[in-house]
Design a protein that fits this description.
Protein name: HDOD domain-containing protein
Helix content: 40-55%
Order of helices and strands: EEHHEHEHEHEEHEEHHHHHHHHHHHHH
CATH superfamily of the largest domain: EAL domain
Number of strands: 9
CATH class of the largest domain: Alpha Beta
Distance between the termini: 50 Å
CATH topology of the largest domain: TIM Barrel
Strand order of the largest sheet: 1-2-3-4-5-6-7-8
Mean pLDDT: 75
Radius of gyration: 24 Å
Shape: elongated
Oligomer: single chain
Length: about 425
Amino acid sequence: MATQPADGYGIALQPVCNQALEHIGDKLLYRESASAREANVDDALLATARACASVMFDIGLQELVGNRFLLCTIPDEWLLQPESILYPPEQTVLEPNLSAWQRAETPAALARLQEAGYRIAVDAAVLATTAQQLERSPDIIKTDFRQRQTPIRTEPAGIGGSLQMATFIETPEQLDEARRAGFDWLQGFVFSLPVVIPRTTHRRSGNRAVELQLLAELSNEECSLTELEPLLAQHPSLAIVVLRQANSAALGPRGRTIDTLTEAMLRVGSGRMRMLISTFMLTSNEPIRRLQARQLLVRAGMAANLAERVASISSPIAFSVGLFSRLDVFEGQPMEQLVRDLPFSGAVRRALTHREGELGKLIDILDGFEAGRFNALGANTTAMLNEDYLRASAWADRWLRDDDDEEAEGRSTS
């Protein structure tokens, strides 16, 4: 029986075979527990991030599928933010959710992923019903064989060059029929039920303070990656992930040697570093919730915005105070315990634990705003806080999403 991790979730694989019945790929599936036989997903983004982390951080893609390809369904957020995708393009087939076809941006987003080297799979029923016009032909067209449809071989829009994949093949007779119909790839229970993969039994070593500090540093436009090596070195598990990503074909040809963590970070770039660390936080072996993480980041940005209006408070210090002031809720531990071994100044420590001083008042304002205690704040202050909140929310979304354009340009000209 598969080993169930402390927080329950796991992954499963279902084989994909070719016409010669050779095992050439695997469909990646999320399971809320090691004993689950089907998906039960409340948060598609969190489930996808956890499945990705299991593959890339815990087990390893090579150990999981060898040289076979991995077929993954991605949430809309990853489709529109391709830097979120940590899988290597040369070994990955991506399939958008059905909800993606309600977005006007989907055809252009799929074309960008194809240009980056990913193969794209699209359901035949979607092609038959969507009003969207694809910019490029999908690499794979999936057909539910229970509908007894034949492969799409010719299409005025140029679909004919796509590989054809039959899914939900459940009996040997259906398998023979699908092969005679000319499907290139075949998937279904006839080969195997989804096989639940036990995650590694060791818990990934984490250092949440280092992760949050790295995120805070990377949010600074003047951040120098060369100065973060000592900080990253304090987090061995994350350092290994960064080194692996630096060798990804998505960042250029493999084979370039990397002698230092600084070289690895420069190759990965600050945008992808932010995504690696965020994914690591959200999918580590504790039940971290994505919504809580975003709220923490917005709170930190709002604190920095507020500090711009107060001469006696530094914005960088306010950012740290805002970031850490809800860490007890985020981590489920008393604040006194969390800050005990952190190198905070006395003023910051007293603000976090006892809400003392100017920084303590700043935390009280954040708490009052989030709790909706607007009457005590006054109309002018509430309007100011609303403005700071909107700025912080847009900022948090932007720096979690955007690549570092300047470093990308530097890599392209190096």
